[in-house]
């Protein structure tokens, strides 16, 4: 509660100029009174919500009157309108929408209101209150309402269906009338049907394909069936009976899609197929470039013997960041320093000047005996606050560059932004543990306020201890030098206590928490990891030797205790090497075992050879964050993170330090 109270003082009083002891006492009394009022208002708000849900309207009205100045009163009004507003009450609804522009309250209430108008076929009101683009249902009904009310010429209105049609997913039933009118007007073409089939096949809802197939002329039906088969099994492109040549461009499109998937599933079959295609399968320049890029990446990731051949087929200007990485990895695996040094000058400017390529250019120079030139290149890279900047500084055995520019915002500006209704609502929603709604409010603010106000929002979020929002906002704004806000010592007592207990570097634990969730205690990943340090339930069960609930993993202190213990266990099982343990925390220990080379390899080269881009970038980020935390916390007595990394060698026999 103390953090909320501090934030509330900041919200309600702003920056108070104290000119005497009497003023201090009065200010503190006012603060305490405001806090007491807010606590009472929260309780009344919750009671009013219950009364609304139970339709006890007399009790609700009494409670609502007592909450006139409470920031979340508008949420009660929105709830009331969603439940009870009728089309004849449009003045009340419109007044509410106008009072809360560009906020979740506005778009959630508008969506409900439009649904009610749709249900009653109130065309004029719908068109007046519709705010494009809206949901697909609302887009379709807006077209239908224009037709029903004669708001323009029919064909230009129906052409609005074109953009709605082009989706790989099913369209809602509300679109059926306008789709039928669109078709009857002759606006649906075979090309548009084919384009939607391609969208459905290539990542969309493939069960749509038989439905769409019927809309094609009979001679084209085989194309839709072939697309559907290739979606289910890309090796079907090897069956030449589907490649009759009747529609060569369409067949080529299917083959290009299938090869792009088959190379990942069965590279040897894909390589045989692409060399034995019928002559009428002629890839466009764009299709062939995309295939070469895809083959180069897939074969490299799988360590296939043909990887180098496909990488060599790409001109320096045809590389993506991904293919360039794998070209680098291929040469680093071979120790082909001449090739590394020769490629860098031919890269496009953005890539050539990046810290990554400049660092490896210097490494190649060093390996080829050009020590002094290498040092000059590293000297430039070492000015960066990044993984490669820190590596370069370690190669030079010089102090790190950690530029720190404190966020300076005028107190009056901060106070003004803190009083914005969305800010006030977000604070109260957090106080009620309604984090999803709080984030919606905050994100709506970030989308619509000026850049200067966004900077103020980042500072306010940081002051509240809402670290993930502060970090996200500063990253979005490119405020990378606001180190104190971007790398807070969040949950420091817990990180220190449990890191000490696990006998690991607390800066390492902080770096992992920063990378995993940006210190968001209710974080949940698509992979099913939970909490501050993003633990899988299975991992938590293993560490704790009992079933751990999701609810427990959302407890920050408990999550840190398990996360630090797991880091320590991984480090112990991997030869007491924290670099390998960092990779294992992301990818799993058995994958890291598979990635250990038979012959000793320098750690910086090993990191670039990690097959998974996610894990590779994860390791780089955690190492950089760990270094930043060590530097920020002035722990000069500890060994430099990258000073340990540069001489380290990795092998299947065990890491050598």
Report on this model:
The protein has 40 helices and 2 strands. With 657 residues, it is an all-alpha fold. Among the domains are: 67 residues, Alpha Horseshoe (Serine Threonine Protein Phosphatase 5, Tetratricopeptide repeat); 70 residues, Methyltransferase, Methionine Synthase (B12-binding Domains), Chain A, domain 1 (Orthogonal Bundle); 159 residues, Lysozyme (Orthogonal Bundle), CATH 1.10.530.10. Helix 6 packs antiparallel against helix 7, helix 7 crosses helix 8 and helix 26 packs antiparallel against helix 27. The N terminus is likely disordered. This is Murein transglycosylase. Belongs to the transglycosylase Slt family. One of its GO terms (molecular function) is hydrolase activity, hydrolyzing O-glycosyl compounds.
Concise overview:
The chain has 657 residues and is mostly helical.
């Amino acid at each position: 509660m103390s953090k909320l109270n501090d934030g509330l003082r900041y919200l309600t009083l702003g920056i108070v100029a104290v000119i005497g002891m009497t003023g201090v006492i009065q200010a503190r009394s006012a603060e305490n009174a405001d806090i007491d009022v807010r606590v009472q208002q929260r309780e009344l708000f919750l009671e009013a919500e219950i009364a609304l849900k139970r339709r006890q309207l007399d009790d609700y009205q009494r409670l609502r009157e007592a909450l006139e100045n409470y920031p979340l009163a508008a949420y009660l009004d929105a709830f009331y309108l969603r439940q009870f507003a009728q089309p004849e009450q449009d003045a009340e609804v419109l007044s509410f929408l106008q009072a809360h522009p560009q906020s979740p309250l506005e778009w959630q209430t508008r969506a409900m209101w439009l649904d009610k108008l749709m249900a009653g076929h109130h065309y004029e009101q719908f068109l007046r209150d519709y705010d494009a683009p809206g949901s697909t249902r609302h887009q379709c009904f807006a077209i239908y309402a224009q037709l029903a009310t004669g708001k323009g010429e029919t064909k230009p209105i129906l052409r609005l269906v074109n953009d709605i049609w082009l989706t790989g997913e099913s369209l809602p039933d509300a679109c059926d009338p306008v789709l039928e009118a669109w078709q009857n007007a002759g606006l649906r073409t075979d090309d548009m049907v084919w384009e939607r089939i391609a969208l459905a096949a290539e990542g969309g809802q493939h069960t749509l394909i038989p439905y769409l197939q019927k809309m094609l002329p009979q001679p084209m039906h085989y194309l839709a069936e072939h697309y559907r088969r290739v979606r289910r099994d890309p090796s079907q492109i090897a069956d030449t009976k589907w490649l009759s040549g009747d529609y060569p461009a369409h067949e080529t499109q299917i083959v290009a899609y299938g090869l792009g998937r088959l190379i990942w599933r069965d590279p040897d079959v894909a390589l045989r197929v692409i060399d034995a295609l019928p002559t009428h399968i002629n890839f466009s320049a764009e299709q062939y470039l995309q295939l070469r890029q895809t083959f180069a990446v897939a074969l490299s990731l799988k360590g296939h013997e043909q990887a180098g051949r496909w990488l060599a087929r790409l001109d320096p200007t045809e590389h993506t960041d991904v293919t360039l990485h794998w070209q680098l990895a291929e040469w680093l695996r071979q120790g082909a320093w001449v090739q590394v040094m020769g490629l860098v000058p031919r890269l496009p400017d953005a890539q050539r000047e990046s810290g990554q390529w400049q660092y490896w250019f210097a490494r190649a120079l060093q390996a080829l005996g050009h020590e002094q030139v290498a040092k000059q290149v590293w000297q430039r890279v070492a000015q960066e606050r990044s993984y490669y900047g820190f590596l370069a500084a370690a190669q030079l055995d010089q102090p790190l560059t950690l530029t720190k520019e404190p966020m300076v915002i005028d107190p009056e500006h901060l106070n003004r932004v803190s009083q914005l209704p969305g800010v006030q609502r977000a604070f109260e929603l957090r106080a009620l543990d309604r984090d999803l709604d709080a984030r919606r409010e905050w994100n709506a603010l970030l989308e619509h306020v000026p850049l200067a106000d966004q900077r103020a929002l980042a500072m306010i979020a940081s002051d509240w201890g809402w670290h993930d929002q502060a970090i996200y906002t500063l990253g979005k704004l490119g405020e990378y030098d606001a180190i104190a806000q971007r790398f807070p010592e969040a949950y420091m007592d817990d990180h220190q206590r449990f890191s000490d207990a696990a006998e690991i570097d607390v800066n390492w634990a902080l770096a992992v928490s920063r990378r995993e969730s940006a210190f968001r205690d209710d974080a949940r990943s698509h992979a099913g990891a939970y909490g501050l340090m993003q633990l899988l339930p299975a991992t938590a069960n293993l560490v704790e030797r009992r079933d751990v609930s999701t609810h427990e993993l959302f407890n920050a202190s408990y999550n840190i205790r398990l996360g630090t213990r797991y880091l320590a266990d991984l480090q112990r099982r991997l030869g007491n090497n924290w670099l390998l343990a960092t990779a294992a925390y992301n990818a799993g220990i058995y994958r890291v075992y598979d990635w250990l080379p038979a012959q000793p390899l320098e750690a910086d080269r090993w990191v670039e050879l990690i097959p998974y881009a996610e894990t590779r970038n994860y390791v780089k980020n955690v190492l950089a964050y760990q270094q930043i935390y060590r530097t920020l916390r002035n722990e000069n007595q500890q060994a430099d993170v990258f000073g340990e990394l540069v001489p380290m060698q990795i092998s299947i026999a065990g890491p050598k330090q």
